[in-house]
Amino acid sequence: MPTDPGAIVVAGHVCLDLIPELPRGADSLGELLVPGALIDVGPMVSATGGAVANVGVALHKLGLPVRLVGKTGDDSLGDVVRSALRSRGGELAEHMIVAKGESSSYSVVINPPGIDRVFLHHPGPNDTFSATDIADAHLAGASLLHFGYPPIMARIRANDGAELVAILRRARNAGLTTSLDMSFPDPNSDAGRTDWPSFFRNVLPHVDVFLPSLDEMAAMLRSVKTEEPARESRASTDALRDYDPASDDAEDPIDHFVALLIAEARRISAIAVAISPMGDGSVMTAIMPGDASRAFPAPPPGWHRKIVARLKDRARLDLLNHRDKQRGDATFEIEGKRVYAEISTRPVEGGEAASIVFGDAAAAAAPAAEGGLLRTMRKCAKWSIESGAAIVGLKLGDQGLYLRTTQNAARLEAAGVIPREKVRQWIGRELVAPCFDTNVAGTTGAGDCTIAGFLASLHSGAGPMETVTFATAVGACGVETPDATGGILPRGQVMKRVLDGWPKRPLTEELPGWHWLDAHKVWIGPDDLHL
């Protein structure tokens, strides 16, 4: 195999994305996908997907040398994937692995304009990908290894990521900088049963650049199985099962019922409680990590609206706004313990649905002025740094990119990709780069394109502000077409758009104590050592 000095190796998940063109006008997937309906759609876009194809092709289009190491089956779908990669560049399919007798991975992407996407996914050979699939020749002469989507790769996520650790360790021993991205784990799958905090504690010491989304990290860190709930008594279970609202002599029966519900959810290590209208009452469902949902007794008729209104009031949500999804946070005192939760509501048929997603009580000690997004991103990034990563970039969807880096200069130097003379610029940084303003045609692959921009800038020796700016610029280019990478331009053209004054979108959440640096169009956080 030829070697490209300084090449970026992109390994991990690859699939074929099938993207039907869906009509505009729906406010939710439920409104669009009505059972029994015939939906008039446009042409089907077929494109390679997954981290290998999305990040790899984006890097290639930016002008960087890349090697793609993904695994397909020896079927017609695998032929399509490899042919599509070859059409992007003569050598892009050269390092792809063909697994004999396996059925290639594919995703059907339900991506209506203006609504977040949903994937129907078959993992295929991604589930059998292991450390032996990456040969020394793949790493020879390269400078950086990026690995993507462990949650939907069975062998990679198993045993606290032992196979992934072997890959990362070998790459670092060969002198490569290591980078890792995640994907959202289905809570009702084996991925939902994974102890992700243990996975991260095992893997992150071998990761130099960690680039997940905030939603992914928040979900995976909440799924930790602690021993504390198991030690609690079953009093809350019995009280909830035997609950009789007619004989409830509590000062506030609605608060009492919610307290019983949360206490039971915490006892079984649930990560969330959903409250949805059902007939003339409501159904309470605790969503447990990797287990089936559990339905709790419905409260009396008429209580549903009162419960949702009480939760909205606790979370300081606008009680008059019933059109858009709302989100806030609250702290509950349950069985003598503080329980921190994020509360969100959304309109559904028959009223409003509410969800209570649990964090930990320590998060409630953060400054009260900080909203849920800010508090969550800072907590997740700090935890990731303390677990071993050197550079953490959390993708915030339409809010941009949050960067936090270690204060340990030796750890940054060990990462290798940062020139020695620029290590000081990267020490102890805390930045938020808002998104660039653009017309969104589709969000498929937006995070992967952002990663490509981040790695391309890092690979060039740029500083942190330039890196987060370029990352969000490439991400913005990526959403201008329905497929993942069709909108990516050569590096020089992307930079020209930025230098020509490409406007940024304002954040929807205030950043108290942060400073706006107009020259770079970046927010600097209170923990930034260069402030």
Layout of helices and strands, plus pairs?
Blueprint: E1 7-12, E2 15-20, H1 29-32, E3 44-49, H2 50-62, E4 66-73, H3 76-88, E5 97-99, E6 106-110, E7 118-122, H4 136-139, E8 142-148, H5 154-173, E9 177-181, H6 190-193, H7 196-203, E10 209-210, H8 214-222, H9 228-231, H10 235-241, H11 253-267, E11 272-278, E12 281-287, E13 294-296, H12 303-314, E14 326-334, E15 337-348, E16 351-358, H13 372-386, E17 391-395, E18 401-405, H14 409-415, H15 423-426, E19 430-433, H16 446-459, H17 464-478, H18 491-499, E20 515-517, E21 522-524
Parallel strand pairs: 1-4, 1-8, 2-6, 4-5, 8-9, 9-10, 10-17
Antiparallel strand pairs: 2-3, 6-7, 11-12, 11-16, 12-13, 14-15, 15-16, 17-18, 18-19, 19-21, 20-21
Helix pairs in contact: 2-16, 5-7, 10-11, 16-17, 17-18
Which features would summarize this protein structure in a list?
11-stranded mixed beta sheet; alpha/beta; 22% strand; 531 residues; 6-stranded antiparallel beta sheet; 21 strands
In terms of DSSP E residues, the strand content is: 15-25%
Mean pLDDT: 84
Strand order of the largest sheet: 5-4-1-8-9-10-17-18-19-21-20
**Class of secondary structure makeup:** alpha/beta
Overall outline: globular
Q: DSSP helix count?
A: 18
Helix percentage: 25-40%
Please outline the major beta sheet.
Answer: 11 strands, mixed
Rg (C-alpha, Å): 24 Å
